[in-house]
């Protein structure tokens, strides 16, 4: 079979019932209209591996990072050449080891790394995906179509270069936040816990805490394997520990020399490395995120889902506020925790406080009654 010419290949997923396996299944079935089969020891509705290898024109490995290289090796042995003409891919967070194993097969090979947890949205729009097209010929056109349908920002990269970059992008970032969590866990209780620290937050603390909480709420196996399975992470950790140690010894030394050395190495030299344009951009970005966090923190808002996704629907929504003489403090397009797109309309606090409950109820009713939108939530405003 020359499956490379098939416009509607059967897609096989190794790890069908995992977080990414489920997301991929939905994507291939619903967005691409393809038949999906798979294997996963966590489910009893899946094909045995030998049957999966026989049926799948496109086979994707979406299994635990630590297990994936040996798993691919098992599948290569199992397929025993039957994979010739097929496309084998993986979505592992490391790329060198899985792609090297995939290349032992006779299949065409593409390594992928969607740089996000499986999103609640049906595509990877707004997210980066690393792509390692290690051996692609007949499947090129299908691959291009698939990648474009993911709507991801695809970045082509060599597997080793990817892993070296991920030691900084993931290994170092995760390590720094896990270590921060460890220190906070030790020191915060004496200060009354996280709840007592929160009112004293800076934008930097809030941003860091958001990253830390995301990591700690994720799949622990992923964060463990990213540290242990990427050989480029350990040198980055050594260097990180050395930088912290440098700072610690200077702070302990506490004289003018120590201050000079700290400033020279950790601030001046690093600022020169990043360069003035990057620092100006980053600093502005920090301020914008600060304003965004402040808007999101404000209790006087309405979140409105606009079912009519067409030009003018936002204007119709805003007209409801305008007709009632209600000032808007902010407006953001955002997503609910379930991933539903909505507009979050921030309102002037003093005006809201002065509004009788009936007026607020009438405002919400007007938005819903005219079929403009569905009010999802509104802290502060929903006193009715
Ligand atoms: N979750 C993320 O944030 C994320 C982001 C990008 C890439 N990835 C990559 O996606 C892959 C899967 O991650 P996940 O988050 O879905 O993990 P997961 O633990 O939710 O899913 C892994 C699945 O693999 C199954 N599995 C285990 N051994 C298997 C075997 N021998 N054969 C078939 N299936 C087997 C497990 O039962 C499980 O259902 C990983 O390689 C990970 O690096 C994950
Ligand atoms: O939680 C998210 O959305 C993530 O970005 C998860 C994250 C990460 O934190 O680096 C974790 C593992 C994947 O390889 C990609 C991204």
From TrEMBL:
Its EC number is 1.3.1.12. It is an enzyme of class 1 (oxidoreductase). It comes from the Bacteria. Residues 302-383 form the ACT domain. Coiled coil: none annotated. It catalyses: prephenate + NAD(+) = 3-(4-hydroxyphenyl)pyruvate + CO2 + NADH. NCBIfam families: PRK08818.1. This is Prephenate dehydrogenase. The lineage of its organism: Bacteria, Pseudomonadati, Pseudomonadota, Gammaproteobacteria, Lysobacterales. PROSITE patterns: ACT, PDH_ADH. Gene3D superfamilies: 3.30.70.260, 6-phosphogluconate dehydrogenase C-terminal like domain (1.10.3660.10), NAD(P)-binding Rossmann-like Domain (3.40.50.720). Pathway: Amino-acid biosynthesis; L-tyrosine biosynthesis; (4-hydroxyphenyl)pyruvate from prephenate (NAD(+) route): step 1/1. Residues 9-281 form the Prephenate/arogenate dehydrogenase domain. Keywords: Amino-acid biosynthesis, Aromatic amino acid biosynthesis, NAD, Oxidoreductase, Tyrosine biosynthesis.
């Amino acid at each position: 079979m020359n499956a490379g010419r098939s416009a509607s290949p059967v897609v096989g997923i190794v790890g069908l019932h995992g977080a990414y396996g489920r997301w991929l299944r939905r994507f291939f079935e619903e967005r691409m209209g393809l038949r999906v089969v798979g294997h996963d020891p966590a489910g009893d509705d899946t094909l045995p591996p030998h049957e999966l290898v026989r049926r799948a024109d496109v086979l994707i490995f979406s299994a635990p990072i630590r297990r994936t290289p040996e798993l691919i090796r098992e599948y290569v042995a199992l397929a025993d050449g039957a994979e010739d003409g097929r496309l084998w891919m993986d979505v592992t967070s490391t790329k060198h080891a899985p792609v090297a194993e995939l290349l032992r097969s006779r299949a065409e090979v593409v390594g992928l790394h969607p740089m996000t947890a499986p999103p609640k949205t049906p595509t990877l729009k707004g997210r980066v995906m690393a792509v390692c097209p290690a051996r692609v010929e007949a499947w090129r056109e299908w691959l291009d179509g698939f990648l474009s349908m993911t709507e991801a920002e695809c970045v082509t990269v060599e597997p080793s270069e990817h892993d070296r970059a991920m030691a900084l992008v993931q290994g170092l970032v995760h390590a720094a936040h896990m270590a921060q969590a460890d220190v906070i866990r030790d020191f915060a209780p004496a200060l009354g816990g996280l709840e007592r620290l929160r009112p004293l937050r800076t934008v930097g603390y809030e941003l860091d805490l958001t990253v830390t909480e995301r990591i700690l709420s994720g799949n622990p196996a992923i964060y463990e394997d990213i540290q242990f399975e990427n050989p480029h992470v350990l040198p980055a950790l050594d260097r990180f520990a050395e930088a912290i140690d440098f700072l610690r010894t200077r702070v302990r030394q506490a004289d003018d020399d120590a201050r000079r050395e700290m400033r020279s190495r950790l601030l001046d030299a690093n600022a020169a490395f990043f360069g003035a344009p990057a620092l100006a951009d980053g600093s502005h970005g920090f301020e914008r995120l600060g304003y965004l966090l402040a808007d999101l923190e404000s209790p006087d808002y309405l979140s409105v889902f606009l079912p009519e996704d067409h030009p003018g629907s936002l204007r119709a929504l805003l007209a409801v506020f305008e007709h009632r003489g209600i000032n808007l403090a902010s407006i953001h397009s955002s997503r609910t925790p379930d991933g539903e797109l909505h507009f979050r309309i921030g309102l002037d606090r003093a005006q809201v406080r002065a509004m009788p409950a009936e007026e607020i109820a009438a405002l919400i009713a007007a938005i819903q009654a005219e079929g403009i939108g569905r009010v999802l939530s509104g802290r502060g405003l929903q006193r009715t």
